């Protein structure tokens, strides 16, 4: 399947996640579907469950990745993480890019849900494009604290060009 144009920041993030063919992945905030496209191209027996609160994000992801939806490799739903009941009992990876939830408000319930569903050795990958350098420290501190308070071991990675920070919570 030919890849649509995908920004370098998304390619870097998905490469860092090292998605394996049999992984079960949750994407929070699927937006235009670029991350879903890259992730699904790496899956064979694994599956991606992508969610977005926005109807337009869900629609764009479904259109862009129609073949993956049809094959059953991708499920896309309009839902908030707080009310999500993940159809996959165990997740290997959770991915989000520029999702503010983890640093703008209390999210203990959402992090607890992720901790419950991510397999031991699995990870939550929170990526943020550093468009506002003055916010990077706050984003890293608050997102790291939310994951650590939820039982994850946290590490931080950065890419300079384009400027992206990743907060990784390992179970």
UniProtKB/TrEMBL annotation:
GO molecular function: methyltransferase activity
Top-level taxon in the UniProt lineage: Bacteria
CDD domains reported in the protein's UniProt record: AdoMet_MTases
Keyword annotations of the record: Methyltransferase, Transferase, Ubiquinone
GO BP terms: methylation
Pfam family membership, one: Methyltransf_25
Keyword Transferase annotated: yes
Coiled-coil residue windows: none
Name of the molecule in the record: Ubiquinone/menaquinone biosynthesis C-methylase UbiE
Domain Methyltransferase per the UniProt entry, residue ranges: 25-122
Organism of this sequence: Nocardioides ginsengisegetis
